Each structure stands twice: as structure tokens, then as C-alpha cells.
Amino acid sequence: MSSPLSERLSGPRWRKLRRDMALAWGRTVMMIVAIAAGVTGIGAVLSANAIASREITRNYLGTAPAAATLELDRADAALAEQVRGRPGITDAQARATLTATMRIGPDEWRTLVLFVVPDFDDMRISTFARESGAWPPPSGTMLIERAARDMVPPGPVEVRLPGGQSRTITVSGTVHDPSLAPAWQDRAGYGYITPQTLAVLGGSATLDELKIRTEATTREGIAQTSRELAAWLRTQGNQVHEIQVPPPGQHPHEGQMQALMLMLLIFALLGLMLAAILVAAVIGGMLVQQIRQIGVMKAIGARTGQIAGLYAVQVLLLGLAAAAVGVPVGTLAGRAFADVVADLLNLNLHSQAVPLWVYASQLVAAVLVPLLVAAVPIRRAARLTIREAISDYGVRQETVSARLTGLSRTLLMALRNAFRRRARLALTLGLLSVGGALFLAGLNVAAAWQRTVDDGMAARRYDMEVRLAAADPALVERIRTTPGVTRVETWGGAPTAAGDVVSTYPDGGHGSFSLRGVPEDSRLLDLPLTSGRWLAPGDTNAVVLNSMAANPLPDAKAGDTLTLNLDGRATTWHIVGTVREIGSPAAAYVTKTAFEQHAGPARDLRIATSDTAAVQRVLRDARVEGSNLATAELREAVGGHTFVLIGALIALAVLMAIIGVLGLTATTGTSMVERTREFAVMQAIGATPRTVLGIVLGETVFVGLLSWLAAALLALPVSWMIGDLLGDLAFRAPLPLTISPLALGLWALAAVAGSALAGAAPARRAARLTIRQALAYV
Amino acid sequence: MPVIDVREVTKTYDTPQGPFTALRRVSLKTNAGEFLAVVGRSGSGKSTLINMITGIDRPTSGEVHVAGAAVHELDQQALAVWRGRNVGVVFQFFQLLPTLTVAENVMLPMDFCDTYPRAERRPRALALLERFGIAQQADKLPAALSGGQQQRAAIARALANDPPLLVADEPTGNLDSSTAIAVLELFAAIAAEGTTVVMVTHGSDAAPYITSTVELADATVSAHV
């Protein structure tokens, strides 16, 4: 027995709806595919974001990260025991962290951050999980973080501590430490050793860090507790060099991940909007075809609401069908993408569960967005009076193209046809232009990013950075005379903080802020000024801040006075300018003279050379006590941080282009169906199928070229906005507006080829119809 | 009481060339069971008059009363409801919906106007088709029918809601003469049963069947016999 609803839906108007959809199955499928693609995009991004955000927090908090790390002269279990009893402190453990170097090639060294753990079986703060190898690692061996496996050569590895000589130890296993930025991204190895192994490496077995957990959970609260603890430690005769409070509960790359997800979400939403507009375009085209039928239905008693309801239900059904495809595919894609993100961020995914709200959002996106967009043509068609519907409408008396003269008849007809239905032309152009603009913007931003990194690297006119344990003029001289070396400068470098608390993460890089002393006659640094001026000889308290300094000093500007903490002492500076610097943590530049007055002798070398290996040999022969970083390494590290983002941008750009071309195909197909009779009449009065094909191709290629122009113009503000957002998130500086000629060329090709393809199939079909068939076309 | 009472109706359209008067102070009364032919040259105002009677268009001035309703005063929503129940429309080109079968086309007005219970709609459609001799075509799509059969189906559809008024705009214009005569006979039979039939026509073939004629010339009624 039928239910009232099924009875209701079996009425003739609903049968008409079903059969109309089945009859135009190609368009129906295309609309479902387009909405499903948009829903898949939204679902993939939302699912991946939900999983990755939950798991990044779960992984990070799973390591019981230290709320704060206090850098002391010395720390041990007894001191930690005393600290545990202090107010606001819930736990404390002594540790040490050293930035060493390891040999990864004959003359190639890489940064190795060594975490010294006194008791591997009693880790309560900043924990990591054993994956393989003996636990604890035997003396003379080290465990490495699993993401550094490809970077650290197997077996014995030569390690050099700052101020020490290189020694060989063995890699005995791996651990998982999801609290750190992945080793491969930061081009640094992470090693975990006992104090005994540290002694084997020639280091002091003394621990110098106190890691604490606090009752306070906000950064301000933790900082206050840490300050009070530092004050107490000083009263006990300890020296407190630095208090590090990284953003609480936040993985060092969480911001990067969120930026990526935000970008993907924006593109996915735009993709959905494009799909919805495509649906509106196709439904609009279909309604134009059915105008007479609408008029007839009204003449036999249909009310405006019934007509609107009929077509709204059609869009609703399309949305539901798209959701049926898009939701599971989006969820699967989201889970796969979450896997990629987890792999990139070195996380373990404990669960791939997708929250219910994500499914609900996809359903709403699938059903509501196309319905809202299609409401405009549906309303317009449903409100037509019978007289308007039954008489021809929509063709203007005169179009712009009607005034065109001096062109071939075929080309003239193609151009006039393009302008016949201006609303349709606008919609087609809009779809293709927005798709194209997003494609161009994706590639423009990728190019802007590359240009920013290139310019950033070019601004550093040196190829190597070497940190010496102590100033060594003789070594500097030896390097200066090494073949290939064109210039050596000695710079100052010291960690600093805008207050008495820094935001540095345990790896020492993320969140750090340093004071850099630049020689007055330096020729190795040429950072573009964003405000004020660069340092001048004789400046004693002038400071220039780089882009990332906006993190610790969000409101600082040229003209302000600034207090910087140097090894526990407050120093006062006058900000004279700001510069754009890419690939560097927050830094404050001062003259070398000023640096040495406040922070002691400068001992960092910046070397411009065409032969870094030769300099490496000099350093090795001199058994230099220091570490080095080649600019090329830095470029790789910056690239490692962002290639996912750029890759995703390009993938989305291609998706947008596909949706745009699909839109053109849809509207061209609709237009061809509408004009089947017209083609038949043309053939009846002597036009060949070739002429018909020429007219249609001329029309679609013309639209393609127009859209290229519109896309190129529209891409400018879109590229600017995305570049501004991304640049600020990544570098705290907007990306320069860059136009990728490659992208323009590719889109020109895609627009013309896509247009030709979109027109070719329906035009061929139209040209193949016999005149009798075409004239009978309803 | 007349089924159609058109009082002093004038209809003027604004065109790029200036105002154009399609009907000028036209009055007309038609009773139940009449078969009225509206004749005149092309552009004389025949279709405009039909549009006034069916509520498809509104008069610029004057009144239109049809089947007891002041059509000129109804809004679009009320007009749709009124028209569905009171007027059956037959078009020159039949205008059957191509994706519905013949029976479904006839059921459609009942569906839109909810005039008969669902269970009764198909039997009623089949009965109408039987009456017009095309019951065996009920489950075919319109494209499979001849022109005459399609026009019979269109008449069946127009009568689906049992309206007191049937309006046909050149219903035989697209048919051969023998089929046209069959259609005219149908209209005459329908009128004989009490339904008022108004038909716009060019030809004189309808003369033997009609009960009255209105001739329009230059937007006015030139003769009413």
C-alpha cells in the first residue's frame, strides 16, 4: 500500500520532473558531479582539519610538553625536587639541550639538536616514545627521532658539540617525539642521549635546563609562575639565563597547518560556489527551454509556487544525489589527506573519526547552496506570466555585435550569437573567469612565494653561517684567503626577548628571537626596508626589526623605544626601521659595535664563497669549535615548510580550472540544444555542417578568450588578497603581487582549448541532425 | 447570467513605436452552452480578447466577468486558482508536455488544482480520452500521436477539471481539414452539454457548428451575430 507521500510524489508533475531529469541525463550527471566535487572538496578539507587538529593536539599534549623551560647554569634532580614544592608548579625535571652538528657527507655537516635525558625510565615532562633500539640508549649511542631517519646516516655518526671536537657515536634506535617540528622539514636531526653519552661526546655531564609544568594554563599565567620561580632560583644562588614559554598546548607547526587548512577551505568554498553557479546556469538554461511548458502548466492551473516547487525539488534531488556521492568521497579524501598531514607533521593518528558536524555541513552545502543560487532563475521563471511564457522572450532587439561590420559572415554570426543572451553570456563568462582567476591566483601566489623565498635568499649575500665558540681572527683570516671566498664578516648573535620571557620551543629555533650585530660596513646583507631606515655607522642604541619580530613585538614600529632582555639584563633601544626578511626567526639588528657593548664579542661568521666545501675543509682542519649553516640548507628548510601549501594551492587551482571549463561545457551544451531548430533552418537555406561548426566554435572560442581577459584582471586582486593572508601567516610580511606568465599562458591554452572542446561536441551533434529531425526538436 | 461578460474593455500596449491599442471599448456577453467563434484578420485583437477572458492579460480599462468572477480584479495567485477550475485552454500547437504520457497530460490539471481525489484522476482521464476516441493512446508519449490525436488529447486535458468555459486559440489551424472538422464536432458536442466554448479562428469551416460569432476589426467589435 502506498504512503500518502509516495502517492503525492507519483503525481504527473513529479513524473515529468523525473523524466525531464532522465531525458537530460548528461546535464543531470554533470550537475551532480559538479556539486559532488564541491562537496568532496569541502568534506575533504573539513574532515582532514577535524582529524588533524584533534590529533595534533592529542599527539602534542601526549608528550606532556613543558609549560616552561628555564635555562640555568646547572640543574639536577635535587633542584627539580625543590622546585616541585614551589607555588604554582605541578612538576619539574632537569634536562639539557645542545645544538651540535653531525657529519652527513665528506664535507657536509648538519645541525643536530641533542636532548640529554638523565633517566629514560622516569620521564614525566617532554616525553617521547620508544620505537626501536635499547632503552635507555647505551653509553656512546643515541636514539634519533624517527622523522630524521633519512637524514642521519646509519651506523656510526660523527658528532661535534659546540666548543668540542668531533666524536663518533652510534645510532642505536628511534623514538617518536611529536612535540617537535619534523626533522626533515627543519633540516635538523634530533638525538636523544644519556648524560654518559654526552660525556663521550666531550660535553659536560651537567644538566642546565629545568622543565616545569604549572597550574596556570595561559601563556601569561605560565610566564608569571616562571618569573616567580626564576626570582626564587636566583635567591638560591642559581643563574637564570632565559625563560622559555612556547604557546601553551600548541604544536610548533600548528599555525602552519591551520594556515594550510584555511587556504584549502577558502578554495573549497569557492569551488562549491562555482559548482552552485554552474547548477544555476544549467537549471537556468533548462528553464529557458521549458518556458513554453511553464506557460502551458500555468494556463491549465499551475500556481507560481507549484512551478517553483517543481524545479526547486529538482535542485534538491540533485543536491541529495551529490551528497550521496560527495560525502563518502569527501570523508575518504579527508582521511587520506589527514594521513598525509600526519605524515608531514610526524604525528600518529589515533583515530580517524570524523565529527558529525562535518557530515552535517557537507549535507547543508550540497543541498542548500545550489538551492539558494538556483532560486534566482527558478523564481524568475516561475513568476513569468502566461503571456510572457508563451510568447518568445529574451532576445534583444539589438546587440553590441549587431553593429559589428567588416567581418566574415560566419565570424559575425558567432559573435552575434555570443551576445544573444546576455545573462547567459555573463554567467558563462563569470564561471569561466572565476575558475580561471582562481587558477591564475593559485599559480600567481605559488610564484610570489617562490619569488619571496628567492629574494629573501638573495638578500643574504653570504653562503655560509658559522657560529664559533669564541672569536678567532686567525681563522677568519685563513677563511678569507681560501679559494672561492669573496668576503668574510664577523657578526654578533645572541638570544634575546622582548620581555623577560621568550617563546622559544625546545628545538631552539621555533619561536626564537635573537639580537644580531651587523658590521657597519657589511656588504653581506641587503634586506629591503619596510619602514624607517637601516643602521648607520655610529648608531649605538638603534635597532632594526625584521618581519618575524612582529610575533614577539606586535605593536613595535619605527620611532618606538624598545627594551630587550639580554642574558637576564634589560637593555634599551630605539627602533629606527623595519625590514622584510624571509626564512629567519624573529631578529633585531643592531650595529656590531652596539652589540659588543651589550652582549660581548661577536663570533658568528658570514661567508660569501663559491666553494663551501673548501671552507668546510678549513673549518675541519682547524677543528673549529662551532656549527655552520649553508644558505642552501636554509632554502631547503624554508621550502620544506611550505611545499605542501604550494602543492595544495596548485592542485586546487587545477580543480577550479576544471570546474570553470565544465561550466562552459554546460552552458554551451544548453545553448546548442536551444538552437537546434535554428541550425536546421540554417542548413535548410544552404549552410553546410561545417558552417554550423564554424559558428559554434567561433562563439565558444570568443567566450574563452573574453574569459581569459576577465580572469587575468580578476586574478590580480585575488592573488593580492591570498598573498597578503599567506605571507602574513608564514613570514609576517605580505607576498609581493606576482603575475606568473606561465599561468597566463596555461590558462589561455586551457580557456581556448576547453572552449573549443565544449563547443565541438554539441555543435557536431547539431550539425549531424537532419533538417527534419532538427525542426521536430522540442 | 452570462458565463462571459466583457464590459467596455480597452487594452493598450506600450511599444517602442508608441502606445498601441489592441482592443478599444469592446463589450461581449456569452451564455452557458454557447459555441462562440471569434474571427477577424491578423492583428485585429482576437488573441488579446481571448487573453482578457482567460485572465492571461489584464484590461487597461473596463471589466471582465467570467464564470461569476471579476477576472480583472484578481491577483496572479487568485487568477491561477480560478483559471485552473473554470477555464480549459486549447492551443493551436497542442502544447502537450512531451515527457508525460497522454493520460498523464490529462491528469496534470487535476494534480495542480487538486480537483479530484488522487484515485479518481486516472479513471477520469481515461474516460475523457475514451470519449474523444484516443483511449488506446493513453500511455503513449505525445510525440507518438498524430496532430489530430494530439489536439483531442489537448481538449481532454482542457476539460479535465470540468470547467464551465473552454477557450481555444485557432485549434484547427495546424490540422488537415477532415481532422479539423472532427475537432469542431467535438467542440459542438461539448457546448451542447452546457460548456461555453470560445474559439478563435481564421477559417469559415466552423460556421456549421458555432452558435454565435464575434468579428473584430481594428480593435473593435465590428459584428456580433
From TrEMBL, chain A:
<dbReference type="InterPro" id="IPR003838">
    <property type="entry name" value="ABC3_permease_C"/>
</dbReference>
<feature type="transmembrane region" description="Helical">
    <location>
        <begin position="742"/>
        <end position="763"/>
    </location>
</feature>
<feature type="transmembrane region" description="Helical">
    <location>
        <begin position="692"/>
        <end position="722"/>
    </location>
</feature>
<feature type="transmembrane region" description="Helical">
    <location>
        <begin position="425"/>
        <end position="449"/>
    </location>
</feature>
<feature type="domain" description="ABC3 transporter permease C-terminal">
    <location>
        <begin position="266"/>
        <end position="385"/>
    </location>
</feature>
<keyword id="KW-0812">Transmembrane</keyword>
<feature type="transmembrane region" description="Helical">
    <location>
        <begin position="260"/>
        <end position="288"/>
    </location>
</feature>
<keyword id="KW-1133">Transmembrane helix</keyword>
<feature type="transmembrane region" description="Helical">
    <location>
        <begin position="21"/>
        <end position="46"/>
    </location>
</feature>
<feature type="transmembrane region" description="Helical">
    <location>
        <begin position="643"/>
        <end position="667"/>
    </location>
</feature>
<feature type="transmembrane region" description="Helical">
    <location>
        <begin position="356"/>
        <end position="378"/>
    </location>
</feature>
<dbReference type="GO" id="GO:0005886">
    <property type="term" value="C:plasma membrane"/>
</dbReference>
<dbReference type="InterPro" id="IPR050250">
    <property type="entry name" value="Macrolide_Exporter_MacB"/>
</dbReference>
<keyword id="KW-1003">Cell membrane</keyword>
<feature type="domain" description="ABC3 transporter permease C-terminal">
    <location>
        <begin position="651"/>
        <end position="770"/>
    </location>
</feature>
<protein>
    <submittedName>
        <fullName>Putative ABC transport system permease protein</fullName>
    </submittedName>
</protein>
<dbReference type="GO" id="GO:0022857">
    <property type="term" value="F:transmembrane transporter activity"/>
</dbReference>
<feature type="transmembrane region" description="Helical">
    <location>
        <begin position="309"/>
        <end position="336"/>
    </location>
</feature>
<keyword id="KW-0472">Membrane</keyword>
<dbReference type="Pfam" id="PF02687">
    <property type="entry name" value="FtsX"/>
</dbReference>
<comment type="similarity">
    <text>Belongs to the ABC-4 integral membrane protein family.</text>
</comment>
Automatic annotation (TrEMBL), chain B:
<keyword id="KW-0813">Transport</keyword>
<dbReference type="GO" id="GO:0022857">
    <property type="term" value="F:transmembrane transporter activity"/>
</dbReference>
<dbReference type="InterPro" id="IPR027417">
    <property type="entry name" value="P-loop_NTPase"/>
</dbReference>
<dbReference type="GO" id="GO:0016887">
    <property type="term" value="F:ATP hydrolysis activity"/>
</dbReference>
<dbReference type="GO" id="GO:0005524">
    <property type="term" value="F:ATP binding"/>
</dbReference>
<dbReference type="InterPro" id="IPR003439">
    <property type="entry name" value="ABC_transporter-like_ATP-bd"/>
</dbReference>
<dbReference type="InterPro" id="IPR003593">
    <property type="entry name" value="AAA+_ATPase"/>
</dbReference>
<keyword id="KW-0067">ATP-binding</keyword>
<keyword id="KW-0547">Nucleotide-binding</keyword>
<dbReference type="GO" id="GO:0005886">
    <property type="term" value="C:plasma membrane"/>
</dbReference>
<dbReference type="GO" id="GO:0098796">
    <property type="term" value="C:membrane protein complex"/>
</dbReference>
<dbReference type="InterPro" id="IPR015854">
    <property type="entry name" value="ABC_transpr_LolD-like"/>
</dbReference>
<feature type="domain" description="ABC transporter">
    <location>
        <begin position="4"/>
        <end position="221"/>
    </location>
</feature>
<dbReference type="InterPro" id="IPR017871">
    <property type="entry name" value="ABC_transporter-like_CS"/>
</dbReference>
<protein>
    <submittedName>
        <fullName>Putative ABC transport system ATP-binding protein</fullName>
    </submittedName>
</protein>
<dbReference type="Pfam" id="PF00005">
    <property type="entry name" value="ABC_tran"/>
</dbReference>
<dbReference type="InterPro" id="IPR017911">
    <property type="entry name" value="MacB-like_ATP-bd"/>
</dbReference>
